[in-house]
Design goal:
- By secondary structure, the protein is α/β, with parallel strands linked by helices.
- It has two domains: 271 residues, Carbamate kinase, CATH 3.40.1160; 93 residues, PUA domain (Archaeosine Trna-guanine Transglycosylase, Chain: A, domain 4).
- It is built from 13 helices and 15 strands.
- The chain has an eight-stranded mixed beta sheet with strand order 5-6-4-1-7-9-10-8, with helices on both faces. Strands 12-11-13-14-15 form a five-stranded mixed beta sheet, sandwiched between helices. A two-stranded antiparallel sheet has the order 2-3.
- Helix 2 packs across helix 4 and helix 7 packs parallel to helix 8.
- The protein is elongated.
- The chain starts with 26 loop residues before the first strand and ends with a strand.
Length: 385
């Protein structure tokens, strides 16, 4: 393992970390917004240097840090002769292709001052959808961390299209918390947190994951941003669903990351539910879309929600969509309430032939029997109580 060098700034400038209200955070994901990294088409090395220092201090305290960074488009559009960040897909892709290497060069140079290596990973929706690539990304991240390298992740903007793109780096950072099994997500942007409505604009320090905060969300975006506060709150809720707290805070101020980790009331913290899902089920739930719908009867609903049972063919009333074996589907009751999501053991046309039948009839109807369950309970995530 590469030996970590101590930070060059005097240690008495950094607050000591007391027992954290955040819990025992040994690994965290830090998403840095494009407005923090770049402004008016130029990178901001002083702000990034402060962030790099904070990351270095946390690493020396035994905390692993994964960075998810925006700013490729914001730092590359001027090289295309443009006066502002483009909104069309192709110019954004071209700007990202230029800006990504500029960003990485800056991060590599600043981390090198602390004798720390960095590694870049470009991710897209396909990396979350595909189980093999999901595991590959996880293993790569863990290998980099084990060898003392700081992973820097960005959405693959230069190649993404409307279908493949995850949406923005806020959402991507929430997905990365699952890929890396992190215990905390910090989203650093140019806003101080979620602001309470009204003239005072007070930062709301704590938000329960299921509370309604729509009236506090402004819809405008920064010049170079994608999702604004709507995307940040959505990402925080996504991470919170799986037991990961999120802090949204101003990343333009030095030392913010260390102050957050010290337990100071910086920004807005989204409080999660207790984590209850295995890594396998977390992956199922984090996949970006379902391929179809299974409508089930009241008996199957009771079996799933009350007994934690698998979904059998006898409980399926209807099949919507055309999907292959292994696809993620929504499982709904006859009133269209979404009860669960899961991975099917048979293709859509086969489930249509099996619906309402007993498991003993599978081989006769299909000519073979793979398993007895349409969705096994180990491949199913309940969404209803």
């Amino acid at each position: 393992m590469r030996k970590r060098a101590p930070p060059t700034r005097p240690p008495n400038e950094v607050p000591a970390l007391p027992p954290r209200a955040l819990g025992d955070v040994r690994r965290l994901v830090v998403k840095v917004g494009s407005g923090v990294i770049a402004t008016r088409g130029r990178l901001r090395p002083k702000i990034v240097a402060d962030l790099v220092y904070d990351v270095t201090v946390l690493r020396h305290r035994g905390c692993e840090v994964i960075l998810v960074v925006s700013g490729a488009v914001a730092s590359g559009f001027q090289s295309l002769g443009l006066s502002r960040p483009p909104t069309a897909v192709l110019p954004r892709q071209a700007a990202a292709a230029i800006g990504q290497h500029k960003m990485m060069a800056m991060f590599a140079r600043l981390f090198a001052k602390h004798r720390t290596e960095v590694g870049q990973l470009l991710m897209s929706a396909d990396d979350i959808e595909n189980r093999q690539r999901f595991l590959s990304a996880r293993h790569t991240l863990l290998e980099l961390l084990a060898r003392g390298v700081v992973p820097i992740i960005n959405e693959n903007d230069a190649l993404s299209d409307h279908q493949a793109i995850i949406g923005d780096n806020d959402h991507l950072s929430a997905l990365v918390t699952n890929v890396a099994s992190a215990q905390l997500l910090v989203i650093l942007s140019r806003v101080a947190g979620l602001l309470e409505g009204g003239p005072a604009e007070r930062v709301i320090p704590r938000v329960e994951v299921d509370s309604d905060v729509a009236r506090h969300i402004r819809r405008e975006l920064s010049e170079s941003g994608v999702g604004g506060m709507v995307a940040k709150v959505s990402a925080a809720r996504l991470a919170a669903n799986w037991g990961v707290p999120t802090v949204i805070a101003d990343g333009t101020q030095p030392g913010q990351l260390l102050r957050i980790m010290a337990g100071e009331e910086i920004g807005t913290m989204f409080v999660p539910r207790e984590p209850k899902l295995s890594a396998r089920k977390r992956w199922i739930a984090f996949r970006t879309r379902s391929r179809g719908v299974l409508v089930i009867d009241a008996g199957a609903r009771r079996a799933l929600c009350e007994r934690g049972a698998s979904l059998l063919a006898s409980g399926v009333r209807a099949v919507e969509g055309d999907f292959p074996m292994g696809s993620r589907v929504d499982i709904v009751d006859e009133e269209r309430h979404v009860l669960a999501i899961g991975l099917v053991s048979y293709a859509a046309d086969e489930i249509r032939r099996l619906r309402g039948r007993r498991e003993a009839e599978i081989k006769r109807l299909l000519g073979y029997e793979y398993v007895k369950e349409i969705v096994h309970r180990d491949e199913l995530v309940l969404l209803a109580p």
